[in-house]
Amino acid sequence: SMPSEMLLKIFSYLDAVSLLSVGCVNKRFYELANDNGIWLKLYSSSLQPRWTIWKMKSKQAETVSLGCAALHDKKPGYWKKEYIFKQTSAFKTRVMRLVKLLDPYTGLPCKNKEAMKVSGLSWIIVLKDKNGKEHVIEKPNLSFKDTSVTILWYGTDWPCLDVLSTLKLFGVTPLLPDQSRRPNKNGPRRFSLIAEYHLANLTESSVAVGADELVQLFSLSPGLLVGIWKEKNEIAFVMASLHYNQLLERSILGSSTVQYAPPPNKPLLDDIDPEYGLHDYSLHLDLHGRSCMYLCGSFKGLFCRKGDIENGYLRLTVVSLKDNRKHLPVIGTLGICWETDGFKGNVKDCFVMDLTLLDETGKPFWCFSAPVYMELSSKASGLYDYMGHIYTADYVDAEGKVCVEFVWLEETKEYITVSLVLYVSTKKVNSWYGTNY
């Protein structure tokens, strides 16, 4: 029953975030909260140059004439859209500026954590059932590593696996970030789609990674691990591994329906070197189990001869079985730790692999963070120094393959990495360098 003029007067004292929230109350509030006069005032006071603000305050007549022209010529909500667009553009520029500084060790942005804090970034998953109903799962547990972040969600009121159709992973940021206040869960937020996974026939269509007494793990590409209770067909937890390469872009610059598409690489043309694109790669490799690190290694000067290109792959030998100078020990017992509200566990013989392959200019060429499982090989070690059983761990995606071999030393109770070979897709190399191998 309150007159619209009085409501508009009250709304004029609100900040932008509160005004957007008020607009969600009902249709009348939405129309009033779209008032161009209120939003033009917010736009002018926060985004115009200081001399313009001073001029508008000192010469009110000019302000009124400017306001009338700007108000009557625009549809309701125009200045709200302009305000949001300018604010979000400035916010993205500020965040992207933080990630321009690169770590010479990994070739990745070294201020990822600071950028995430500034942006108020968080991640959620949305489970959609076959009837179209969506279940939003928030409040994840985060674990940061040198080149990736591991995110774990769990709860007691998740829908049954049989009725679920898809799982979507989103990066979520406040629509209008405020450095002086913590992000408000109920405030206006922006969603950026990172990945979408199909859960129909999950146990048949995905890769079984391992199991313990309570759960069985299934891997979905890219970088998702789903834990299923053994006693009942329900999800116990979901774990996502996100590599730092383009993490913020994918979590911020996409839309709620379309994933962020990185710009194509601009190759540096080299007509002198006939082996251009085949040498001087650098690799940084981490193996971890969400809360602990098992192996961390860096390798430089990796190369591939043209004779090693076959079956659509370039072969990069990182660690050779015969060169024991590069053999690396695995620290601790391999496994992925998990937890829920009432239970904890550790699925052995599996881990998260973070791979960062840099080209000869130091740019990230092939990067991923994904769960990998290890299995006993049928062949025995032929090396005199290592007379134990051989275990293999392989990873495959559209850009390449990774093959790792470990030897178990019973005397010292540890694994030794004795072989590590990368197979990079020639399609990936050709599109990256503009060549034809």
Task: For this entry, give a set of tags.
437 residues; alpha+beta; 3 domains; seven-stranded antiparallel β-sheet; six-stranded antiparallel β-sheet; FBX15 protein
Detailed description of the structure:
With 437 residues, this protein is α+β, with helices and mostly antiparallel strands. It folds into three domains: 4-88, no CATH class; 112-178 and 185-253, no CATH class; 281-433, no CATH class. Helix content is 24%, strand content 38%. It contains eleven helices and 23 strands. The strands form five sheets. Strands 13, 14, 15, 20, 21, 22 and 23 form a seven-stranded antiparallel beta sheet that branches. A six-stranded antiparallel beta sheet has the order 3-4-10-9-8-7. A hairpin with a 3-residue loop joins strand 7 and strand 8 (215-220). The longest helix is centred in the N-terminal third of the chain and has 21 residues, at 78-98. It is globular, with a radius of gyration of 27 Å.
What is the number of independent domains? 3
Judging from the principal axes of the Cα atoms, what is the shape? globular
Beta content comes to 35-45%
Q: What percent of the residues sit in helical stretches (DSSP H or I)? A: 10-25%
Report the structural category: alpha+beta
Mean pLDDT: 86
Largest sheet: 7 strands, antiparallel
- Cα-atom radius of gyration: 27 Å
Distance between the termini: 74 Å
- What is the tally of beta strands? 23
Q: Low-confidence parts lasting 5 or more residues at pLDDT below 50?
A: 50-66
Question: Helical segment tally?
Answer: 11
Organism: Rhagologus leucostigma
InterPro entries: F-box-like_dom_sf, F-box_dom
Pfam families: F-box-like (PF12937)
Domain F-box: 1-42
